[in-house]
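Sample entry (551 residues):
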Amino acid sequence: MLDTLFHTHSALQAVVIISLICAVGLFFGKVRLWGVSLGVTVIFFAGIIAGHFGITIDAQMLQFAESFGLAIFVYSLGVQVGPGFVSSFRADGIRLNACAMGIILLGSAMAIIFSKTLSIPLSDMVGVLCGATTNTPALGASQQTLQQMGLPTSGAALSCAITYPLGVVGVILAILLINKLWVRPTDMASPNAKHINNTFIATLQVENPGIFGRDMHTVADFVHVPFVISRLWRNGEVILPSNDTTLMEGDRVLVVTSRKDINSVEAMIGRRESIDWNKDNVDWNAIDSQLVSRQIIITKPEINGRQLGSLRLRNSYGINISRIYRGGITLLATPDLILQMGDCVVVVGGERAVMKVEKVLGNAEKELNEPNLTSIYIGLAVGLILGAIPLTLPGISAPVKLGLAGGPIIIGILMGIYGPRMHLITYTTRSANLMLRAFGLSLYLACLGLSAGADFFETAVSTTGIIWIALGFLITFIPIMVVGLIAMRMCRVDFGTMCGMMCGAMANPMALNYANDTIPGEHASVAYATVYPLSMFVRVILAQLILMLFL
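Predicted structure, serialized as tokens:
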């Protein structure tokens, strides 16, 4: 009975084998060696071991599970990074993304040069590139392109599997080496400094005679940067300001703006007080007894996709909205901000007014626990259709298809950006999104490992395998060392931010965990999130273009 269950090909046998591989991989993925855990990646190696010992599943079931897992993973990834995709090009994001593109292009150029000069098949070399950069979505895109060209995909999967471990280790070694040899005290940012794009809250004294007697709307036109005044103190009383409220000499105002703009607001209004309102433990309801501050979650579908100003909450209910939390990011509550399901809105006003606004916005957290499956299935279908459309590009004789990886990730990003504007509820809780991503990636890695496992160990100790490992390590190590030092010395990026940029460009969360454990502050995580969306997108598309252009 058990022998039939494990060795006789059937749908049941495929489900059992894949489930066991995922379970074993996730169990051992929690083990930490030298402060580093490989997480879900261990599923890949569990599949390789299973394949090495002769465990197989039906070829069509294998292809279905691998394709379905990859599509789910890249689509949910696109939805997650979509809202931050455009903002990653602003301010310091341009500089960090430029450095990340340098890493990606240098590594890709090395792979092409190695293939041509050492007579290594480009299909195998692209697998080495994907393993060296720990990028399984790019491998999936490469395999799709090879299938479209009528070429075998086993070499790419095998070379990726063999070079993957040093792809993880190489980034960590680079961080260690740069830290030991080149980091100076001035390269370390203050661990408590907030990122430049975060909101900043300050109390200002109204001291500029040019704005005495001016209403808030006029003052906003003078400053030319976005800001919100959520409270005003005058003669010992607190006032909830509106656009018609005039500022008088001696007023104190609580201003919410971005850190990079606070100096402009201060120059126009007046001196900043030393009170630090940016700590996590501020009790906003203890500031005064007349106003309350409450966080309200948007759960009503009719609010999704609307501009904040169009709700006219300030005029209708006499409240102020100072800031909005979305996906761990604090946003300034400007009138043109597009609201999404799940946004957490900070409302300041009287108790009764805030309760009325709560009814308008929803604040029914239970509704967010219901998954929005319609938008997920629509996005997957549209992404797969887009991936199947042949695209003719200049200089390429054969049509290019985005495939299972490229199509869904593009549609996922677009759904994350524009879905709310089209009143499509793309919001899923963070745990639900992580669940989708982990489920899809687990399926893909388990099947990928099974398909590569039969020849893995034999190839790894062969001359070909040793060459792949050596070249993969060079593709991992050299670009991040070169660009990392340029980022620190020429672009004036601090060490923590540089490490996060390197990890994001290499799509290496394991190395990011190591950076977060060894470098104080959140700079590495912020930089990782800044470059990850564009880097992931470029790697998926670039892997296909390399095969189309140079094979």
